[in-house]
Design brief:
Blueprint: H1 7-20, H2 38-52, H3 58-63, H4 67-79
Helix pairs in contact: 1-2, 1-4
């Protein structure tokens, strides 16, 4: 785990980088500003669900698509039992 990050941030950061074909991504940058598009977003949400057991609804993904925001969303949904 990187200093200052949560486990969810590390996992989602790795998934995001893999989907985008990068070694790493800035956890504060929007997925769409670092090369993502709607098709890659679907792929990423599928990988997030497969890895974490949490399905991130598209509306929430588009509202906050940075690694930090997605990790927060996953943690909140997990806490709600979704």
């Amino acid at each position: 785990m990187h200093e200052g990050t949560t486990t969810s941030q590390d996992v989602i950061g790795e998934l995001c980088a893999a989907v985008l074909g990068k070694d790493q991504v800035d956890p504060n940058e929007s997925f769409f500003l670092i090369g993502g598009n709607s098709l890659l977003a679907v792929r990423l949400t599928g990988r997030i669900a497969a890895t974490t057991g949490v399905e991130v609804p598209a509306a929430l993904f588009y509202q906050g698509s940075s690694v930090v925001e997605l990790a927060r969303t996953v943690d909140e949904l997990r806490a709600q039992g979704k």
